[in-house]
Design goal:
Layout (H helix, E strand, L loop, with lengths): L3 H13 L4 H10 L4 H15 L1 H4 L9 H13 L5 H16 L4 H13 L9 E5 L8 E6 L4 E6 L8 E8 L8 E5 L16 H6 L1 E8 L12 E4 L2 E2 L10
Antiparallel strand pairs: 1-2, 1-8, 2-3, 4-5, 4-6, 6-7
InterPro entries: Anti-sigma-K/W_factor, RskA_C
GO molecular function: sigma factor antagonist activity
Protein name: Anti-sigma K factor RskA C-terminal domain-containing protein
Length: 242
């Protein structure tokens, strides 16, 4: 029996397109005999498709396409990844020809992070959302290099307040520890997780809270936080949940 939380995350990964091909095929077969899983998938599709109507189109950040193209050029040097290069070039071309909805931008973010090969594993992704609301942020972490990237999905600039990223694990003590304050472009130091062990990052709880401008004055979250856990996006994905 699949737990409800596992069903929800499995459905989210299926809709975002982060499951390996074999796992995606298994989920496609499983949903035909598992009404609850099928319902969860339909709910995620509905949440993300609604972003097309609710969010105003925005121009890509300066230099984004250049970074994507540089990453693709690096992949072209490795013949074993030729098919991935072709697929990603097609995605970049489509994005340049049309206004991307936020849900597509979220999926493209995951693909871009996977462009940079690591020695051992694919990036890990956490989705930050409140209950059944649409996701506010995506956090991508390259555990091999201890690099992180935050992408807003439905989150908007907070005016005179700041978003702050936190990490919590029993090994770090009873209270959350600040990873960093997001700037006006929703960016945080990519190397902020350098001093954390990869195994700790895999199991840790991450949170994003809304704080006074410049960050929490107490060193702890001053209000409710959105929480997320890291899940693998490639061959390291946990297939036992099926």
């Amino acid at each position: 029996m699949i737990e409800r939380d596992d069903l929800d995350m499995l459905a989210a990964e299926f809709v975002l397109g982060t499951l390996p091909v074999e796992d995606r095929q298994r989920v496609q077969r499983l949903r035909t005999t598992h009404p609850e899983l099928d319902a969860q998938i339909l709910q995620w599709e509905s949440r993300l498709s609604a972003l097309n109507d609710e969010i105003e189109p925005v121009d890509p950040a300066p230099g984004l396409f250049a970074r994507i193209e540089r990453s693709i050029d690096q992949l072209e040097q490795a013949s074993s990844q030729h098919n991935e290069v072709v697929r990603l070039r097609q995605q970049v071309s489509r994005w340049r020809l049309s206004t991307a909805a936020t849900s597509i931008a979220a999926m493209l973010l995951i693909a871009v992070m996977m462009l940079e090969p690591t020695p051992t594993e694919s990036p890990y992704v956490a989705v930050f959302q409140h209950n059944d609301e649409q996701p506010a942020f995506l956090l991508t972490v390259d555990l091999a290099r201890k690099q992180l990237n935050i992408q807003p999905v439905t989150a908007r600039p907070a005016g005179n307040q700041s978003y702050q990223l936190w990490i919590k694990d029993d090994e770090l003590g009873p209270t959350p520890r600040s990873v960093g304050v997001l700037n006006e472009h929703f960016e945080v130091d990519p190397a902020a997780l350098t001093n954390y062990d990869a195994e700790l990052l895999r199991r840790a709880t991450f949170g994003i809270s809304l704080e006074p401008r410049g960050g929490s004055p107490t060193g702890q979250p001053t209000g409710p936080a959105l929480h997320g856990f890291l899940y693998p996006t490639g061959e390291g994905a946990d297939t036992n949940r099926l």
